[in-house]
Structure formats: structure tokens, C-alpha cells
## 1
Amino acid sequence: MRLCRFGPPGAERPGVALPDGSHLDVSGFGEDYGERFFGSDGIRRLTEWLGEHARSCPAVLPGERLGPCVMRPCKLVGVGRNYRAHAAEVGAEVPPEPILFMKAPSAVSGPYDDVLLPPGSTQTDWEVELAVVIGRVARHVAVAHAREHVAGYALFNDYSERSFQRERGGQWTKGKSADSFAPIGPYLVTDGVDPASVELWLAVNGVERQRAVTSQMIFDVPTLVAYVSEFMTLLPGDVIATGTPEGVGSGQKPPVFLQQGDLVEFGASGLGSARQRVAAWERL
Ligand code: ZN
């Protein structure tokens, strides 16, 4: 199943993508895609409900905004330097075990929303990634059982302000957490995805910057789920961003960073694509 959410920011409603590309409004099911839904076998329950009710669900209008494909998660865990070529381009060693960081859940946005340059930003960068959404509580799980704790996969961009990340003291959270820095979606795909063979790509203003397959990850998805669960309890609906391949702006020679008006397009095989304009942050 491909889950999506539609409607204005903060007031999204649950939907399902049909094979023909249209979207069905499944508000009638009565649950949004968050911790309670995933943690109570919601995907199976929704599938069953659709078997009876799909014909009476309204269509989502074509011009409707698609928001983040899951509700704001309790946790958004990032993985650093999980591709050899990316570690090399930023001048870092291949890590002996996964580097983890937290990204503020308030950074979550939709796949067609603007990316907002935070005030004072001079080095906002892109990072296309595969996101894993947790389906069952994961606490000290074994690698062999990790997949049982995954609800599905989604396209993600781990936008990062490099000067905030590297030059403002301490670790990476400051550079990872601005509003709009965590677009997820358009879809949470719950079946048929091999997380080791997803092709990721990203282009800025029509120039391709990133293209890689997730088989090139240093630590694969089951390893990451198990590893994160050693340090914190992963709750249903939590998101792990599994790291970006080479081709980020800070790895270009000379470095390239996002400017107001730029167009960022990115995608993942089987998970859909995203298209975002870069805009100046405005006080809300
Ligand atoms: Zn990243």
C-alpha cells in the first residue's frame, strides 16, 4: 500500500495512492498515520477496511497539496556518513559504527513544500535519503528481526545548514533541525520495497547532483534499526533517515549551496519523487 496525507499544513488528512496515480481520501477510516495507527496494526486494519469501503471514499482533488506521508514522529533519527563515497567527499573516515544524530521532528514538511533558508543561513545543503518508518516498538531488537519492526519506506531529504552543523559548537543537531528541513514522502510504501536496492537521485536547477543505490550503504537498514534500538526505544511512526550518498553541495569543488529560488528535485525508485523551491524563511 502507498499511504499519503493531503490538505493544508498542520491539517493533513490520510489518503491512499491508487495504482493509476490518483489518491483516495480515507478520512472515513478515522485514523491518521501516527504512533497509534502503526502500533495497533493499522496497515492491516486499513487494508481490510478499504476492501469494504474503497468505493465510497472520495477522490483527493488533483491540485491538493500532499503533505508529509506520516504524522510528525516522536523521533527523527539521522545516520551520518553511511556511504563510503560521501564520507570521502566530506573528508571523513568511514565510521566503524553508525554515527547517529537527532533531527527536530518540527522540521518535517511535505515533498512539494518550499525549503526555507533559516535566518543567517549561508550553507544550506541537500541530502537525498531513504527513510525508514517504524511499525512496531523496537527495543534491543536483533538484526535478524529488525524488518518485523518496519512499517515501510519513504523518500526523504536531510537538509542541512553546514555552518550551523560544523561551526556553531558541538554536534550536528543545530544544522539539521530548521523548519522544512525534513520533507518526507510523497508516499509511505508498506510493501514490495527492498531497502537494499532503492535508487536515489537528486538534481538542483536541472543539474543532477546525486545518484546511488542503497546497496552502497555501509550499514544496511536491518543493521541500522537494530543499532538505533540499542540506544533508544523506537516507537511506531518514528523515522530513521539512513544517510546520503555522495554529491552533496558541500562536497562539490568549489562547494555549492542552495539559494533562494533554486529548484530541488529528487526521487527514489518505487517511492515517488519530490519537487521543492528554495525560499527565504518568514516569521510565521
Ligand atoms: Zn543525512
## 2
Amino acid sequence: MKFVKFILSITGLLVASSGMAQDKVLNIYSARHYPTDEVMYSEFTKSSGIKINRVDADDAGILARLKAEGSASPADVILLVDAARLWRAEVDGLFLPVKSAKLEEAIPANLRAKPADNGGTAWFGLSTRARVIVYDKMKFSKTDVDSYEKLADAKFKSSLCVRSGSHPYNLSLFGAMIEHLGPQKTESWLKGLVDNMARSPKGGDTDQIKGVASGECGVALTNTYYLARLMRSSKPEDRAVTEKIAVVFPNQSSWGTHMNVAGGAVARHAKNTDNAVKFLEYLASPSAQNHFANGNNEWPTAKGVSFDNPALKAMTGGSFKSELIPISAVGMNQIKVQQMLDRVGFK
Ligand code: FE
């Protein structure tokens, strides 16, 4: 009996102490697959005393997990790396709209969710990335590839390298193309891309850049931070890759280069909501925004943040025209895009 009592009191102690620990803990589900983010997590823990537990998965994996876990989900903060997935999660009710004067002040209205019924915001864009074209300088010139539409030109027959069409980065670009060109023209454009492929889609964006440098591909699509990472790499072989290729920010004379947004939200069933909001506020702070810019080569979304990234500067020459379309439109086009990809055989 004494023994049972002892066990119970030990258990009681554990419950009490874990209850206390809950106040200083934050559970994050993150699709940000960038090692340079570690600095931000430790900086936040150091300044707030809040310990971070992190689960890493891709956007689709996180959304599936949140749905399966329902109200039992331990997630407090969700970090996703694609506009359409942020939109999807919002529509599916996986986020808890929150009010934060700091976040509303820092993040421009077009880079966060529209106000929810309770006046809160379901998600906040924390960084942006451009989807650009890289090409083999020996084979093509800038005017050959100064628009996304031109990737379907016959001159790129057996030249195009691209990651899977169903990857969120491509789904969002193609969803944006539907907004600009309409569904019919977008589908024939996608068919043109398939006809021009140098190989069946495989690998990530960095593999496409390397494919251009090795001569296997003549032209490819990539997010800017993958290219910047190679440009700033300490490995000479990475920098050699970037010397063989050139980059174009497409559609400067029309609707502008396609931009995607990475963002954060409080989870619908968060237990540590105060900590979650505190963490999102930290991510919008000048210090964290600088980590996005200098660590992972993304553009900060918070107003008035100055940063100095030599690779981004070299790539853009200072400034460029970026696309301005509602994120919800890109999100809503996802199903249409997937059906088109199936019809044209874009794997
Ligand atoms: Fe990525």
C-alpha cells in the first residue's frame, strides 16, 4: 500500500512538473527544411525561456497529420512553405485565427490571411521567394527565356528540367499561370513543357540547376534561395555550378515574376497559444527577418527590415517586378492544375 502511495505521489509530481513545463514549451510542426533556421529557434528559446519541440515534415504531411490528430493534436505553431498550402489549411480550419498588434503592424495585409470572423488572422507570411528560370549561357540568351510562356517554345525541345509538377512550388506557379493566361492556354503551355523536357521530372530545384551546369538540361525552373545557396556556398564546386548558368526573373514586361510565400500560423487546437503568438511575433521581428534573408536567402516580409544579401543583390541587380495576385486564387486553382497535369502527362 505504502508502495502504491509512493508511486502515486511520484506520478503526481511528474504531472505537476510537466504541467509547469507546459508553460514554457512550444510544439512546432514545420515544413521549413532549412538548417539555417536552427539559429532562430535557439535565439527564441534563449530570449523567452520557451523550449521548442519540433516535428519536421513536408506541407502535405503536416496537413494530413493535423487532420488525423484532430483536437488531440499537440501542435501549437504550423510553419508551411507554400501559398497554396497555407490557403488550404486555412480553408480546412486547421489554423486558429489570432490577434496580434505586432504582427498586424509588421506584415503587410496582402501577405497574411484576410481577417477571420473573430477579427483574428489565420496565418502570416514571413518570407517570400521568387520562382525563376536558369539557363545554359552557352546555348541560350536572356531574351530566349524572359517569360514563363517561352519555356514552351519549340527551341527548348529536350532542354527543360523541372521537379515534379505536383510539387507545391510548381502547383502554385501553374495555379498563378491560370490566373494570367486562363485555363485553356495554361493547359497547352503545360503540354508544351512536357514536350520540351530533357528528362522525366526528378529531384529538387538544386538538382535542376546542377543539370543545367552539367549540360544535361538547357533551361530549368528553381526557387531563388536554392540558387543563392550555391552562389554563397563555401564549396568551390557549388560556385562553379553557378558560373556556368545565368538567371532570369521572368515576365518583367508583363505581370512580373511568380512569388511564393512561406508563413506561420497558430494551430487550431494549440494548448500553448500565448507562446505560439509570441513565437510568430519573434519571426516577424527584425532579427528573425534577417535570418530569413541572410540564412536562407529569402526576402523578408516585415515592413522596414533592412538586410544585406550579396547573392540576392547579384541575382536581381537590386530590384525586380513581382507578380501581384491573391493567394486565395492560386490556392483555389490547385485542383484544376492537378487535373491538367494528369491530362498532359506531367509527372
Ligand atoms: Fe524549398
